[in-house]
Design goal:
- The complex is a heterodimer.
- By secondary structure, chain A is mainly beta.
- Chain A has strands spanning about 5, 10-15, 20-25, 30-40, 45-50, 55-60, 60-65, 70-75, 85-95, 100, 105-110.
- Chain A contains no helices and 11 strands.
- In chain A, strands 2, 4, 5, 9, 10 and 11 form a 6-stranded mixed beta sheet that branches. A 5-stranded antiparallel beta sheet of chain A has the order 1-3-8-7-6, with no helix packed on it.
- Chain A is globular, with a radius of gyration of 13 Å.
- Chain A starts with a strand and ends with a strand.
- Chain B is built from no helices and 11 strands.
- Helices cover about 0% and strands about 50% of the residues of chain B.
- Chain B is globular and about 35 Å long.
- In chain B, strands 2, 4, 5, 6, 9, 10 and 11 form a 7-stranded mixed beta sheet that branches.
- Chain B starts with a strand and ends with a strand.
- The chains are: A mainly beta, B mainly beta.
- The interface of A and B includes residues 46, 99 and 103 of A.
Chain lengths: ~110, ~110
């Protein structure tokens, strides 16, 4: 059974810092990996999707990498801002399945 | 364009009551998913539809949970005889293929 782990569970940084969120998964047979953002009381907003054949994806200040063989993905946030404060969730779609398996998330607080 | 919508946004039910949660997917999206998110946890898969066919219901925690999508568009998740452990946020997502798009969720509190 696929398991997804996110480290750290919580992170507090001052504004302007570059930071890395980590995601690991136990079964490398994945179709794709998605990073989501969740604000308190809200649904999930998709940030980046990496197909299994890709190594990384970039959107603005966000960069996500994927190392399928080692079962790891990282989300890099450059020049963090208070508006980046949210919970970040990593989810994998196993090969042969349409559903997503999520980690528990990393709660990020960026202070001014 | 309109995203995935869910109603109600909040629901309080007394233990033993039945509840029905509605999901309106993005128009044209073939796939629809339901997830349950407990406090402080990541979402967990409940069930999956492709058009009107329920292809996977392996995540439904008990036979008190039932989902339908009769015309391949709107979906309803029904929970019978609610219990306190059913308290969670219920998220709906739709997908045209690769990527899933989530609604705002329904927060269910069972008292």
């Amino acid at each position: 059974k696929q398991e997804v782990t996110q480290i750290p569970a919580a992170l507090s940084v001052p504004e302007g810092e570059n930071l890395v969120l980590n995601c690991s998964f136990t079964d490398s047979a994945i179709y794709n990996l998605q990073w989501f953002r969740q604000d308190p009381g809200k649904g999930l907003t998709s940030l980046l999707l990496i197909q299994s054949s890709q190594r990384e994806q970039t959107s603005g200040r966000l960069n996500a990498s994927l190392d399928k063989s080692s079962g790891r993905s990282t989300l890099y946030i450059a020049a963090s801002q208070p508006g980046d404060s949210a919970t970040y969730l990593c989810a994998v779609r196993p090969q042969g399945y349409s559903t997503l398996t999520f980690g528990k998330g990393t709660m990020l607080l960026v202070s001014p | 364009g309109a995203g995935v919508s869910q109603s109600p946004r909040y629901k309080v039910a007394k233990r033993g009551q039945d509840v029905a949660l509605r999901c309106d997917p993005i128009s044209g999206h073939v796939s629809l998913f339901w997830y349950q998110q407990a406090l402080g946890q990541g979402p967990e898969f409940l069930t999956y539809f492709q058009n009107e066919a329920q292809l996977d219901k392996s995540g439904l925690p008990s036979d008190r949970f039932f989902a339908e999508r009769p015309e391949g568009s709107v979906s309803t998740l029904k929970i019978q005889r609610t219990q306190q452990e059913d308290s969670a946020v219920y998220l709906c997502a739709s997908s045209p293929g690769y990527e899933q798009y989530f609604g705002p969720g329904t927060r269910l509190t069972v008292t």
